[in-house]
Specification:
Number of strands: 0
Number of domains: 1
Largest sheet: none
Strand content: under 5%
Mean pLDDT: 83
Helix content: 55-70%
Low-confidence stretches: none
Number of helices: 6
Shape: globular
């Protein structure tokens, strides 16, 4: 369903602060910061985009996110579950 419809703007607007907060928290200690910078460098991300992640997150658009969904969620071989309280 997500592959067919994509994310809505509302979902993206709710999701981005959560990811940004999580990323910011990950940079709170040296070991994790080193891991984040290193893994992003290996993934081909510009280190400046990582250092200035707030600006990078602001530039993420709905169209860009939805264009990545097929590579993140292939139609077979992946299971997704939702847990609620």
């Amino acid at each position: 369903m997500l592959l067919k419809q994509g994310l809505s703007q509302e979902e993206l607007d709710r999701f981005k602060p959560l990811i940004e907060g999580s990323f910011n928290a990950a940079l709170s200690d040296d070991l994790t910061t080193t891991h984040v910078y290193g893994s992003n460098e290996l993934a081909g991300l510009d280190i400046q985009d990582v250092i200035h992640f707030q600006r990078t997150f602001e530039q993420i658009t709905l169209e860009y996110t939805n264009s990545l969904l097929p590579s993140w969620l292939p139609e077979s071989g992946v299971s997704i579950g939702t847990f609620t309280q």
